[in-house]
Amino acid sequence: MNDPFYAHYDALRVRRHEHGIVEIVMSGEGTNKSGLATADASMHRELAEIWRDVDRDPDARVAVIRGEGKGFSAGGDLALVEDMAMHFDVRARVWREARDLVYNVINCSKPIVSAMHGPAVGAGLVAGLLADISIAAKSARIIDGHTRLGVAAGDHAAIVWPLLCGMAKAKYYLLLCEPVSGEEAERIGLVSLAVDENDLLPKAFEVAKRLANGSQTALRWTKYALNNWLRQAGPNFDTSLALEFMGFAGPDVHEGVKSLRERRAPEFPGGDPF
Coiled-coil annotation: which residues (predicted)? Predict the structure, then answer.
């Protein structure tokens, strides 16, 4: 059961630890046959909202976000993607949540630590890579799957990948949907640290404890100043997100969803859409 301050969350499990550490768990129970946390409508909404509550939680000093079971996060729920493709009101609602998720992580005054293992995809990956300290298991598989689905790489991709790993690497992985191992992600600067999977949670909580025991004004103001680099990239993010959601109203996303359901390569139609 969640801590009373976070009692209204269902898809996310929240519990407190010593030193003001708040642990946020994306539960994989019942969300995906593979046992991974899928960003269905409830999970997507809660991932966008949780950072406002962490920010105003008087007892929280640092947040740790992790997945459970076989991985960190499985990405978007295909039923939700189909709803977005078919219904304007759903598309508009999820666009707002996707926008809020990015800006709420950036603007949360408390430091955020992510602990990523297994597959890390979709809305969970947004929080995972925008976290102030991102820690991945060496065997983790980080994938931005937007172009494979037939939509532009929106979410967090345009705002933070080029800043973290450079434009050349960002284009390679985002355009081709190539998976990045945790070990490679550390090498190119996409994550802060990569460790053996058995060491992942101990390391995440060690870092969280150090942050929680530090000067809170110094840490929060340093985060605020550093995140101005991301705020400057806000127009890039807004453009990428708008283009992503324009894609959900287009024809390619239907083939993307169909090919994922049929476990085959997509066959997108040719031609210049512009």
Answer: none
Domain ranges of the chain: 4-261
* Residue pair 237/74 in contact by the 8 Å Cβ criterion: no
State which H helix or E strand residue 261 sits in.
helix 252-261
pLDDT one-digit tens code per residue, 120-165: 999 999 999 999 999 999 999 999 999 999 999 988 999 999 999 9
3-state secondary structure of 250: coil
Task: Kindly report whether the global pTM for this prediction surpasses the value 0.90.
Answer: yes
Q: Which of 210, 134, 140, 127 shows the shortest CA–CA distance to 165?
A: 134
**φ, ψ of residue 73 in degrees (nearest 5):** -160, 145
CA distance 232 to 203: 31
Q: What is the pLDDT of residues 192-204, one digit of tens each?
A: 999 999 999 999 9
Q: Which of 112, 148, 150, 152 is nearest to 132 (CA)?
A: 112
Looking at domain 4-261, its CATH class is alpha beta
Which residue in 115, 99, 127 sits closest to 240, CA to CA? 99
Q: How far apart are CA 224 and CA 37, in angstroms?
A: 30
**What is the C-alpha to C-alpha distance for residues 145 and 256, in angstroms, rounded to an integer?**
10
Q: Is 118 left (phi over 0), alpha (psi -120 to 50) or beta?
A: left
| Alpha helices, DSSP H, located in 166-227 | 167-176, 182-188, 200-212, 216-226
| Gap between the Cα atoms of 26 and 233, Å rounded | 28
* pLDDT bracket for residue 186 (50, 70, 90): very high
